[in-house]
Amino acid sequence: MSFSCVSSVCAAAIQTGKAKSQPRKAPPEKKISTVWKHAPEEVTSYGKTPALRATPAIGGKLGLSIQHSPATINVISHDLMMQRGYAQAEDAADSAPGVTSGGSPGSPAQLLMRGFSGNQILVLRDGIYFGPTTMVNRPQNSFNLESVQILKGPSSVLYGQGAVGGTEDMRTRDPAFDAPHANALMSYGSFNTWNAGVGGSVPITRTLALRTDFSRTSSDGYVKGADPHSNDFTTTLLWKPTDRFTARLSMDYLTDRLSTYYGTPLVNLSQTAGRVGGLLSSTQGLGITKASMWRYYNVRQAQASSVNATPTLHLEWLATPNILIHNSSYFIYSKRLWNNAESLSYIGGSGNVDASGNAIAPGRIARDRFYVFQNQHQVGDSLYARFDSTLLGMKNRFILGGDAYYLRFIRNRGFPSADYADSVSLASPGKTDLGDFAGEYPFMKSPTTMVQAGLFMEDVLTIRDNLRLVGGFRYDWLSLNRQNFNQNGSFNAATSFKGHYNPDNFRIGPVFDITKNVSVYGVYTTGEDPPGSNLFLANRGQFTRLSHSRQGEIGIKASTWEGRFTTTLAFYDIRRTRMLVATGPDSVATAGAQKSRGLEWQGDLILNRHWSLSGNVAYTYSRYGSFHPSASVDASGNQVPDVPAVTANLWAIWSRVQGLPLDLGAGMRYVSSRKGDYANTLTLKDYALVNVFAAWHAYKGVTMYGRIDNIGNKHFIQWADTSYPDQVLLGAPRSFSISVQAGF
């Protein structure tokens, strides 16, 4: 398998934000002239679109190429995800500069970019906003996706909701009209991990085509008992009766059970033996013991499951050569259930009792119970028109549109009345029953209604052939009605509230071409949106105004050496004020302000037909302003938890080794040390992981892979969830997999 998409800014053709399922390959020396839909410029290439000339949908509705977008954009293509063995979208996102993922089952789609995480990162599905990121989004199987697209920095101007650090958009695969295509995947690996997928595209008529993909992942989990699995079904019907009109009707149906591994408890090392070194350091004398490594502390009937159905309809009409109209309608239905022992606390002294009144002996792990059921209905529509014209003799493209959605979110939850529900042994927790406890039932109910409507504009003015000015503005009407009910069913007026907000945001920046293939840009962007954390956890009195953020960014994007070397470099500075952060599973606090600055570099090099290199590095400086997460902790000026100062990725591919149908590849990922709590008393050690793979092209369109991930079996901590301060999440140890991929 040749390294067909070297860069995370994918070199595969991306048209209207999507790459074709199986693009026809031109002879190597045949020159191809392609006019990109929605793009103001003509692209000329030899057999494939240059990486910086691709036009991903996440960049906005102007149809700008990556080179001419005043922002940092990364695209991880389907082929690249399959080659590197990324089973889910979060794995792919981690390969972009400066991106890390959380892995916490309580926040299953949590990403970190530019010093911000949780709901300060926006997650989209085919450009659609589902709601607060950490509460409603689920991991998506990569087999069903055409690409994972990343936009760095605030994007409230483009999407209207809660993006400060960045946005991730998971794009599904479109049907093809040229011929039938089929794809399949079968993989087995460590921890009894299975990945399977089958899909295909078929042209029903000359104007109607269908694509359907189904994938399943399952595993015992690297912490045995976590048992994650998912089933993802997507289907798309594409109708194109003329060159001027396109209708795309799609459906995504996902059922899953997240990993129910909530972490490994931190213990007082002065009271225990068998300390594991190289994982963390603590000014409080906390650590992890060998007896607790890879232990499962949850209950036997643990649940973190969901059912999600999302039908969407996209209509596009080229009314005249200079006017295009696009409409997107969607409906989201989702049910989610968590029922676990989530919080783990090491008991260092006597005097503690569980919910049944039993004394908890020192040295045991005390646990809670956390039950929450979510039911979400959301319906929305987005309509915009694109106008191509001239302004004082200069080319101009203008977007005018509006969108609206209605979101009804019902959250039922329950906790035992006691501090601790029960306790288990540190070394041999076993699998105990879930149980029922006083105070847990009947549940407390919190229905929330959010209605949003927005008016947006985008514009690109081509002042000269090598100078563009890009701008955008958005004004929103946001209505929030959060209601809380007590366990006896009575309305809790003290914590319930209604709010009406009118955020307005803009961005503006020039893009200048130094040469045809080298561009520099600068951009200033604002964001005013719900104040971080999880808006559906906020109660009366915790905020009165929306959060405000602003970002300045400058950068350079270049393709040199006849397109064999592509690189991007960006410097940014972000400040966010009036923000909330999560301080527990069901609580938030005002953080005041957070500032973040840094740089991100990406480089992709094709040395020759056999060797290719790809790498990136990011530096992030992120600190809180005035912030008191509790009465006893002053975190003002502290490092933001889980934010590494440095992340780096490097991949090398040797294709067609010695003329054989064999590819060899290796990758390295480095994450520097991070703080694990608001007080900065806990430090998570840095780590470097090395992965290797071999690919044998057994037959045309059929490739067999063998992989070893974390070949050095490095033990490391992936994440410290500040909502669960007494535990940390271990990363995966060494694992292997064997897979077969086929595409025809």
In short:
Residues 67-167 form the TonB-dependent receptor plug domain. Residues 88-107 are annotated as: Disordered. This protein is mainly beta and 744 residues long.
What structural keywords apply?
single chain, 744 residues, 22-stranded antiparallel beta barrel, five-stranded mixed beta sheet, disordered N terminus
Question: Which regions are unreliable across 5 or more consecutive residues at pLDDT < 50?
Answer: 1-49
Number of helices: 4
Q: Taking all residues together, what is the mean pLDDT? A: 89
Radius of gyration: 25 Å
User: What fraction of residues sit in β-strands?
Assistant: over 45%
User: Sheet bearing the most strands, described?
Assistant: 22 strands, antiparallel, barrel
Family: Belongs to the TonB-dependent receptor family.
Membrane topology: Multi-pass membrane protein
Organism: Acetobacter conturbans
Keywords: Cell outer membrane, Membrane, Receptor, Signal, TonB box, Transmembrane, Transmembrane beta strand, Transport
